[in-house]
Design a protein that fits this description.
It contains two helices and four strands. The chain is α/β, with parallel strands linked by helices. The relative contact order is 0.19.
């Protein structure tokens, strides 16, 4: 999240899912942003609040920005579903990773 929100001050990061803590991120200065998510881990919430950011619910976001202005919708990769492992070269063909 910190990498995606770099340079987007004043905008709200919206994640339709769970946000967890990442201990690999050692610099907390990039965590000063507004975040709206379904669920958040306690460690991630503590780090964002300690850095000066805020955590919102979707109800609070709807009151603040009813039209969705200044919101950045973050999502995972499109081809992450298990069904995409079945597409491609036939199974058994050389250099095939298809199931």
């Amino acid at each position: 999240l910190a990498k995606e929100m770099k340079g987007k001050t004043g905008k709200v990061a919206v994640v339709v899912g769970t946000v967890t803590n990442d201990i690999r991120l050692t610099d907390d200065t990039g965590l000063k942003f507004s975040l709206c998510c379904l669920r958040i881990a306690d460690g991630a919430r503590a780090r964002i609040l300690a850095a000066g950011g805020e955590v919102l619910t979707f109800d609070q976001l709807a009151l603040r920005a009813p039209t969705g202005t200044n919101c950045v919708l973050l999502r995972g990769p499109l081809k992450a579903r298990e069904v995409y492992k079945h597409f491609g070269r036939a199974p058994g063909v050389p250099h095939s990773s298809t199931k």
